[in-house]
DNA sequence: ATGGAAATACTTTTT
DNA sequence: GTATTTCCAT
């Protein structure tokens, strides 16, 4: 979808990227009618037959099953342009929904290339942005301020912590995180607190937390991410007039990444298209187009249901389905590997990507002894490709399963001097100083936003302690007003010492002054500047000699730059508009759209070679790179430990592998490390089960086995033994379980030595770790144990094995704990 | 009320 | 190993 590298020559591989023959629409309308048919036809040029069909289809709902790299964005944009060109739909009647803001921006741009300025009238946005837009327009109907706050995951966890405290629940026993994810899951299913309480198997604690949480959100005029969707659906269902307005407005609705939609989003689409409305006089249903690929569904953990795409034809009985299987991105070798890996997923609709681009280079495989060696190999190859093949750093991406894995790679890239950039990780808007600054802005825009007000009440330190805060909150509670409103009447609140009252008054004056500034028409940047100044936040950071604080100042400067930029782009935007933007950014949005590898073209400065991009496999979805490294192919790393036991989660991991492999255009590398340091201690990891699914003839193994495995297999020394990892060696391939694809029943891991049948299995797994550790107790469910601080307990569940084994232990009065056995002082009785 | 030390949990993946 | 949280001393 994203085309960071359109400028790269990819010989004969890319008919879909030929320049389009459609001239931008001029403002001279006289020729418009006459040109219409010609324009519409021109949009079909350069498309293959199924793509053409997908553009032409109209009348009934359309599902486009678009394999990776099959030109789906091209089809979508051409379809929109075609709908406009034939006059069936006007620009303002188009609603195109994507997964990320970046994808939305790209789609808008590419439609604009086809239809010109008319693109501006369309809604091209994410689910969340579209819902914010609707909710802000209809805020009165849902009982929100127009400047309502949007809480991110951290904000809602904060609020949940407050709620559990208020309910006198043990925050240890009911961690906010767990409650938050369960509430989120309920919202994804459109279950509101009342409905949940009424349902048969409701958990009392969850029900009361959920009800109170939702109440507090309402009081604070705030919504969380899931509310954006749920409350929009509720709005449309409760107010037929409003629903009708939007049904009349949107005549063509297109949803990208449909496999990632959850139930709430599914219902939202039905509401908007009017498919739920069976009345005689209903607005005619909007044209519905969904695009997706079940094999690329990697967000089930967040509530996405493949069901939505698998059952599309059942949900919309007259639906038409079109398959796009021709790939314009990768070589056949890469596609064959990806097809082979994904084909092991059970219950999948068959689909095989193909290309006429030829086989291309073999996939390069590498087994490193540890993650540093793996990183070294990656860096060395990037360097070599630069010399031999003219590959620029900007052409290369390195993927990994979890963010923590970026560290070893970064260390090596810094050492060898390769420029790189990590996408994601600790996100900009999650940094403490940014959250603090944004919290001020939110509290200014929305005086009832208690979570954010309380966050900054004593930041920077101004002598307002827990006690004063608690008294103020208690007063607010009694008066049934928000803490913000209570602050206006601090003098009436009992139990606050005179110093506390003074401090709170000072804070109140501060906020009042800032609100006046904002109300007086100051832009977001000016308000932000005033916040940083008047609160003393910036002064405090500047005064500090902690180098971390220096970088905090820089981050705040960057936020200020973002605000300034926003003011220039949206001169009419107010603080609430800015906050909306800030609340809905994602990792993937931070990937530079064009400048990564541009500029090195003819005449450009030689230095501008772009930078190597490091990111997780999840973030990589939708992107493509000429050269891709997928690292960490180890059972326990990828597939991740926590998915090994569950076939569904394992299937999702496999889809993740599929996504990773299909990002590569020309060259693909897969690597693993035999030993990887996680949580501070080195562990041995066996080869990923997914590796065995990559056909051996597609892979050029540069190194087939780790030194350790070679030794164990009876090799005669270090490094030398060609027998150890040369051709015929008993490499990674497993003969004993090649056919087992689900792997739910078997032990999650086994040592390499077990497989090659050489040395007998070592007694304590993980003992090969350089750091000899205390023996890890072998536990079984039901065992009784003692813990140095929790006392006696009983094992109720086990996860993983070896050094990373985690036991869930019930400790009577101390509740149930998840313990990483390696670190926990537990003894078997 | 605040700051520092010590304990402790943590690692999927994110709109 | 790191970031956050908790506890204790001031």
From TrEMBL:
<keyword id="KW-0378">Hydrolase</keyword>
<feature type="binding site">
    <location>
        <begin position="66"/>
        <end position="73"/>
    </location>
    <ligand>
        <name>ATP</name>
    </ligand>
</feature>
<dbReference type="InterPro" id="IPR014016">
    <property type="entry name" value="UvrD-like_ATP-bd"/>
</dbReference>
<feature type="domain" description="UvrD-like helicase ATP-binding">
    <location>
        <begin position="45"/>
        <end position="331"/>
    </location>
</feature>
<keyword id="KW-0238">DNA-binding</keyword>
<feature type="domain" description="UvrD-like helicase C-terminal">
    <location>
        <begin position="332"/>
        <end position="622"/>
    </location>
</feature>
<dbReference type="Pfam" id="PF21196">
    <property type="entry name" value="PcrA_UvrD_tudor"/>
</dbReference>
<protein>
    <recommendedName>
        <fullName>DNA 3'-5' helicase</fullName>
        <ecNumber>5.6.2.4</ecNumber>
    </recommendedName>
</protein>
<keyword id="KW-0347">Helicase</keyword>
<dbReference type="InterPro" id="IPR027417">
    <property type="entry name" value="P-loop_NTPase"/>
</dbReference>
<keyword id="KW-0067">ATP-binding</keyword>
<dbReference type="InterPro" id="IPR014017">
    <property type="entry name" value="DNA_helicase_UvrD-like_C"/>
</dbReference>
<keyword id="KW-0413">Isomerase</keyword>
<comment type="similarity">
    <text>Belongs to the helicase family. UvrD subfamily.</text>
</comment>
<dbReference type="Pfam" id="PF13361">
    <property type="entry name" value="UvrD_C"/>
</dbReference>
<dbReference type="InterPro" id="IPR013986">
    <property type="entry name" value="DExx_box_DNA_helicase_dom_sf"/>
</dbReference>
<feature type="region of interest" description="Disordered">
    <location>
        <begin position="729"/>
        <end position="781"/>
    </location>
</feature>
<dbReference type="Pfam" id="PF00580">
    <property type="entry name" value="UvrD-helicase"/>
</dbReference>
<dbReference type="InterPro" id="IPR000212">
    <property type="entry name" value="DNA_helicase_UvrD/REP"/>
</dbReference>
<keyword id="KW-0547">Nucleotide-binding</keyword>
């Amino acid at each position: 979808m994203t085309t960071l590298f359109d400028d790269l020559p990819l010989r004969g591989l890319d008919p879909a990227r030929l320049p389009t023959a459609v001239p931008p629409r001029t403002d001279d309308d006289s020729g418009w009618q006459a040109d219409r048919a010609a324009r519409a036809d021109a949009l079909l040029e350069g498309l293959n037959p199924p793509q053409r069909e997908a553009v032409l289809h109209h009348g009934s709902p359309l599902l486009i099953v678009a394999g990776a790299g099959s030109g789906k964005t091209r089809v979508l944009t051409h379809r929109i342009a075609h709908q406009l060109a034939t006059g069936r739909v006007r620009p303002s009647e188009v609603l195109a929904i994507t997964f990320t803001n970046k994808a939305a921006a790209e789609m808008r741009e590419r439609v604009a290339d086809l239809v010109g300025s008319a693109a501006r009238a369309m809604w091209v946005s994410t689910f969340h942005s579209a819902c914010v837009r609707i909710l802000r327009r209809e805020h009165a109907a849902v009982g929100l301020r127009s400047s309502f706050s949007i809480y991110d995951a951290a904000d809602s966890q904060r609020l949940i912590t407050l709620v559990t405290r208020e309910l006198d629940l043990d925050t240890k026993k009911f961690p906010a995180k767990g409650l938050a994810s369960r509430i989120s899951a309920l919202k994804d299913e459109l279950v509101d607190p009342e409905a949940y309480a009424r349902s048969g198997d409701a958990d009392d604690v969850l029900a009361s937390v959920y009800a109170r949480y939702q109440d507090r959100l309402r009081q604070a005029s705030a919504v969380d991410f899931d509310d954006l969707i749920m409350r929009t659906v509720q709005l449309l269902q409760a107010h037929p007039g409003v629903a009708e307005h939007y049904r009349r407005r949107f005549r063509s609705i297109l949803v990208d990444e449909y496999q990632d939609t959850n139930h709430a989003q599914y219902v939202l689409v039905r509401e908007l298209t009017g498919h739920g409305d069976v009345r005689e006089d209903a607005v005619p249903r909007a044209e519905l187009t969904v695009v997706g690929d079940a094999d690329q569904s990697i967000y089930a953990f967040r509530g996405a249901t493949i069901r939505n795409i698998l059952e599309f034809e059942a949900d919309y009985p007259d639906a038409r389905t079109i398959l796009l299987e021709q790939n314009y991105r990768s070589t056949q070798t890469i596609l064959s590997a990806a097809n082979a890996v994904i084909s092991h997923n059970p219950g999948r609709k068959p689909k095989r990507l193909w290309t006429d681009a030829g086989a291309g280079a073999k996939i390069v495989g590498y087994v490193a002894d540890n993650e540093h060696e793996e990183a070294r190999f990656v860096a060395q190859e990037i360097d070599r490709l630069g010399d031999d093949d003219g590959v620029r750093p900007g052409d290369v991406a390195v993927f990994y399963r979890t963010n923590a894995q970026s560290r070893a790679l970064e260390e090596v890239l810094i050492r060898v001097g390769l420029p790189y950039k990590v996408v994601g990780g600790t996100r900009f808007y999650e940094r403490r100083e940014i959250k603090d600054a944004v919290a001020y802005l939110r509290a200014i825009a929305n005086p009832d936003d208690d979570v954010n007000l309380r966050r900054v009440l004593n930041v920077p330190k101004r002598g307002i302690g827990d006690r004063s805060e608690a008294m103020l909150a208690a007063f607010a509670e009694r008066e049934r007003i928000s803490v913000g409103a209570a602050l206006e009447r601090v003098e009436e609140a009992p139990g606050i010492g005179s110093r506390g009252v003074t401090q709170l008054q000072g804070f109140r004056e501060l906020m009042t002054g800032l609100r006046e500034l904002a109300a007086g028409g100051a832009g977001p940047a000016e308000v932000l500047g005033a916040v940083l100044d008047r609160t003393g936040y910036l002064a405090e950071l500047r005064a500090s000699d902690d180098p971390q604080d220096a970088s905090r100042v820089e981050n705040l400067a960057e936020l200020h730059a973002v605000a300034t930029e926003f003011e220039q782009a949206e001169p009419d935007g107010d603080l609430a508009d800015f906050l909306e933007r800030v609340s809905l950014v994602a990792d993937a949005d931070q990937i530079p759209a064009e400048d990564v590898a541009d500029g090195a073209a003819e005449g450009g400065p030689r230095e501008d070679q772009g930078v190597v991009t490091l990111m997780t496999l999840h973030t990589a979805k939708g992107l493509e790179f000429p050269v891709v490294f997928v690292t960490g192919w180890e059972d326990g790393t990828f597939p991740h430990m926590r998915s090994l036991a569950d076939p569904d989660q394992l299937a999702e991991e496999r889809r993740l592998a599929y996504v990773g492999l299909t990002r590569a255009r020309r060259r693909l590398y897969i690597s693993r490390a035999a030993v990887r340091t996680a949580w501070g201690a080195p562990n041995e990891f066996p080869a990923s089960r997914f590796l065995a699914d990559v056909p051996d003839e597609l892979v050029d193994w540069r190194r087939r086995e780790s030194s350790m495995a070679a030794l164990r297999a009876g090799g005669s020394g270090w490094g030398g033994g060609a027998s150890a990892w040369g051709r015929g060696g008993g490499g990674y391939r497993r003969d004993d379980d090649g056919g087992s694809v689900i792997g739910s029943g078997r032990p999650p891991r086994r040592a390499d030595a077990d497989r090659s049948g050489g040395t007998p299995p070592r007694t304590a797994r993980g003992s090969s770790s350089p750091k000899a550790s205390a023996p890890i107790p072998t536990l079984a469910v039901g065992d009784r144990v003692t813990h140095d601080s929790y006392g006696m307990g009983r094992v109720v569940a086990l996860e993983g094995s070896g050094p990373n084994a985690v036991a869930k232990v019930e400790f009577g009065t101390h509740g149930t704990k998840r313990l990483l056995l390696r670190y926990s002082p537990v003894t078997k009785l």
